[in-house]
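Recap from last week: sequence in, structure out.
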Amino acid sequence: MDYKKVKIGLIGLGTVGCGVVKVLADFPEVEIKKIAVKNINKKRNIENLDISLLTDNPFDIVNDPEIDIVVEVIGGIEPAYDLLVAAVNNGKHIVTANKELLAKKGEPLFKLAKEKNTAILYEAAIAGGIPIIMPIKTTLAANKINEIEAILNGTTNYILTKMEKDGVSYEEVLKEAQELGYAETDPTGDVEGFDSAYKIATLATIALNKRVDINKIYREGITKISVDDMRFAKELGYKIKLVALAKTLEDGRVDVRVHPMLVHVKNCLASINGVTNSVVLEGFPVGRVMMAGPGAGEFPTASSVVGDILAIQRSIGENKLLPMMECHHHINAQQVDIKDTVNKYYISLTAVNTPGVIGALGEVFGRHNISLASVLQKGIGKENTAQIVIITENSKEDNILTAINELENNKNIVKINNYIRVLE
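Predicted structure tokens:
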């Protein structure tokens, strides 16, 4: 076989790092020269691991003149950013699975890589084993993509799926997910939407062709979703998912956000259950394209990492990188504030069971230019109260918030239980 052998340095030997080592065993064109770890003496789940490859100083890798590609799978900003800057300055190509780093430090890192004519590939940082970045840059390059709807976090999708199917609370399912290893001891990054926000920031930048600012992405997690919300959603023909959205509006502004949504059962995202991830792209001329698969895990993520390594390996020796490996996104997106977005809404509230209360609700919403698609009263509860569930027509978020604020001060409204945006 005729190939150019490359040497890589691997920073991190956790779940993904171990997967990369195992997968690369089948590719003689790639040699692992060094692996940076925190604890050299820690036992790893790799048969016949050559201990002489290990170092506890990652700068041994980024400063090694024999290493062609630095593979970073440790996550976080520091020390990852400083290490990758040093590697690029030394003329090395980068493969990373670090979604937070890309979202927060991608712009200066890509600018430096362009100056040094090095590649930064990051397929594994968006949807684990689902190929999405390279398809956008290659087979979908003829398309102007204008909308993304995605489920990008397996932990939250697992929790919401179990809540729906088993009728149990968020707290109960979270505990189970932690015991099974689907959720971290501190699940904040997942359940509060940070993980999905990092991913959609980078994915939207690539797909919409404008640089998206992570600090301007509206983010809301799943901790307020109740069993009642799940039950009412199901009765109305919806499922609740944590959705990452990005779309270009008619005026050229970009709407990028992460929050729970009632997803209509006819929408393909409603069928994505458990730890599975999915990305739906809409554009011209292709229309709607859906990709789904494992969004995390040892081998799915390693699949994407090794794919990027091989893509660089096959281009090394050329005078110029393949265009698909370069960053072309130099225009900053003008991002829309969540208050200016337009959505349908699910609103659940508890009201005093008194004549005229539903009519009064209609009057409040009407004053704020909100039309109601449906209003359901769900029986009489304790202390003569009733649960009322409303689905609105498309309405401006700011108007919804103003109406909800007015209802919270209405003597006949005991509580606004929740409001959730709706995706048809």
